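Lab notebook: predicted structure, single chain.

Context: the supervisor wants predicted structures on file for every construct in the current expression panel, including those that have not yet been purified. This is the next one on the list. No modifications to the sequence; it matches the entry in the shared construct table.
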Amino acid sequence: MIEFSRHVLSVLIGFGSGMVIAAAVFAFITVIGVVPRFAQKTNTQQHCRIYETAIAVGGIFGTIAGFASFRLPFGVVGAVIISLCVGIFYGCLAMSLAEVLDVMPILTRRGNIKRGLFFFVMAIAIGKFVGSMLYFLVPGFYEAGS
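Prediction complete. Output recorded below exactly as produced.
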């Protein structure tokens, strides 16, 4: 009976901790204003609820997918499309955070960048992309240096 109680307590603590972390992540996304900014940029403010719901459902599905062991019938093309969507989301999240913190204006002022900011941002994005591809496609690439 005591062993069962320990397991139930562990499950409750783990579930509660996961709920707190999930709430913190969604609060973070809300605070930096990702959804309203996307809606403003795409001129689709009337669909904010759909965007918020999609982010919440994606978070729930991602959590379930992390624990479950199943295969989706999408194949390689589906995996590439899903990975691209996840990468776009994380890229937009990072750029929203940078925008909220005013990183780009500070960087251009301190770095004395007058022209070519587009190329600078693209270089960061391409570097992130290449690093991700090396990590996921070249077995043992990052382990070789450590």
